[in-house]
Amino acid sequence: MKNNNKKGNKQCLVNTAKAELQKTQALSVSEFVTDKLLMMKNDKLKNSIVLRDKILDKMEAPSKNLLDRIESEQSLVEEIQAEVDSLDTTLYLSLDQVNRAILALRIVDPKLASELQNAIALKHKTKKNRTITKKRL
Question: Is the separation of the CB atoms in 104 and 11 below 8 Å?
Answer without folding.
Answer: no
